[in-house]
Amino acid sequence: MPADLHIHTTFSDGSDSPRQVVDRALAMGLEAIAVTDHDTVAGVPVAVEAAKGYPLVVIPGVEINTDYTGREMHILGYYINTTDPKLLDRLGSLARARNDRVDRIVKRLDALGVHIDLDEVRTRTAGTLGRPHIAEALRRAGVVSSIQEAFDRFIGRGGPAYVPRSWYTPGEAVAMVIKAGGVPVLAHPGTANADGLIPELIELGLKGLEVYHPEHDPDCIEHYLRLCQRYGLIATGGSDYHGQRCHFDLGESTVSRAVVDQLRALSL
What we know:
By secondary structure, the chain is of the alpha/beta class. It is built from eleven helices and seven strands.
């Protein structure tokens, strides 16, 4: 299918620049992609510019990280107005919180006798920093052998260098997307373990579930397809591509162009 609606770039925790993502998508024959960086829309105009003159639709998107009873839930926003002042202000506050959190994590690592060069880490992203950047720095320094080990040993929830962050609630993120003219979708619900919240989010304006995702097995896909049918939601999907920082490949999970048309119609 021709549309991958969940892609990260160097403007958050992806390893590919927006232009590299566009080039790969064109080489694969994709017809549409959504740039959905964590808590930022800065990479969207770069991707749009890179795709000009080519048969590729770049959907302006974002993935907002939220907290629900101590667990992460992510809300995707499609066809948002990336110049909306209120959206940019709220995303800016999240970016500042992310950067402050990274500083605090590095200090905790220092206290544990584990040292990384934060300035060097900052050179490897065009946008906001996050824990994956720290995990990668720990791997490059030889402290751990993999990104997962960094989370397991140091920076994962409950780890000795873990620092909680400021969050919006899922409902606040849904409202943020709607106010920016976008279509809110619950990302990879199979990993969120929060089916009980879905009806409440629908009341707040949720329009879709990310049914097709590399971490969803066939039973999970069937379950969320049934929920989409029950509640009249759009069944979206994407690879959650992060380049070399994740084992999911671009185009690994896709949806039809009809889904893109449905999202576009709801945003008008």
